[in-house]
């Protein structure tokens, strides 16, 4: 997983040489927070758990950077709902807005 700030997205790299983009999570960065707006995985890699690995990697990086998360993307929002150990990344006052 790699952050590509010039493209405002995280990418998960796959393939034998680790050079192929298997999926990405688009974001909008603001002071102290990051809004996830779209996540997509390449259908060629369906069933390999890329989406979950991408979400975990992205959220681990965001935690390390001390950012708050606004999960507008349905995939990231759903993943957060299934992994309450990451729910603290969403501001308490915004959790109801995202159904968390």
Biggest sheet: strands, sense, closure?
5 strands, mixed
Helix content: 25-40%
Radius of gyration: 13 Å
The fraction of residues in strands falls at 25-35%
How many alpha or pi helices? 2
- Low-confidence segments, ≥5 residues, pLDDT <50? none
How many DSSP E strands?
Answer: 5
The sequence of SSEs as H and E is EEEEHEH
Category by helix and strand content = alpha+beta
Strand sequence of the main sheet, in spatial order? 1-2-3-4-5
Overall spatial form = globular
Sum this structure up briefly:
With 100 residues, the chain is an alpha+beta fold. The chain has 2 helices and 5 strands.
What does this structure look like?
- Helix 1 links the parallel strand 4 (about 35-40) and strand 5 (about 70).
- The protein is built from two helices and five strands.
- By secondary structure, it is α+β, with helices and mostly antiparallel strands.
- The mean pLDDT is about 95.
Strand and helix layout:
Elements: E1 2-4, E2 9-14, E3 20-30, E4 33-41, H1 50-65, E5 68-71, H2 74-82
Parallel strand pairs: 4-5
Antiparallel strand pairs: 1-2, 2-3, 3-4
Name some characteristics of this structure.
alpha+beta, five-stranded mixed β-sheet
């Amino acid at each position: 997983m790699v952050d590509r700030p010039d493209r405002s997205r995280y990418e998960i790299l796959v393939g034998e040489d680790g050079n192929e983009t298997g999926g990405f999570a688009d974001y909008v960065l603001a002071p102290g927070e990051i809004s996830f707006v779209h996540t997509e995985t390449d259908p060629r890699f369906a069933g390999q758990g890329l989406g979950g690995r991408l979400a975990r990697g992205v959220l681990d990086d965001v935690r390390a950077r001390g950012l708050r998360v606004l999960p507008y993307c349905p995939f990231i929002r759903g993943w957060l709902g299934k992994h309450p150990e990451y729910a603290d990344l969403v501001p308490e006052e915004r959790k109801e807005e995202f159904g968390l």
